[in-house]
Predict the structure.
Amino acid sequence: MTGNVGGILVSDGALPPSKTTTAGTPVGPATHNLIAYNVSADNTFDCGITLPSHDSLAVATSGPEAGRPQPKVADVFDNVISGNVVIGNGGADLLDAAPFPGTGSYDNTFANNAATNNGNSGFTLHSYGSCSSRPSGCLRRSMRM
């Protein structure tokens, strides 16, 4: 992946709201992917390898399930990112994110990746909350080895 806006993206991103709905339409979870032995270089406007949850239905925000992931609906989880080279991208080298309430990215493994000369930090965990009883973004047990 070279010379694009961003590098490799794995997301549960919901389709935009329609004229009849206020929420987006879920596209389902992004799970059990292996991203291995790739080069993501010189993607000047975004990150090298990105795992963001963009579906606000990924984590329950109310009721008895509030704060709990909803993996049958959305979420980005149980992915392995290993042996990649990430260089010269505009954003973070490797990003695992649940950037707003209701999103969830967790249990992802980042192992043996080489990252250098990118716009932000080498490995970024980004969340406004945690997986708990709070209705917030969920980011937990992601590993960088």
Residues 1-13+29-132 form one domain.
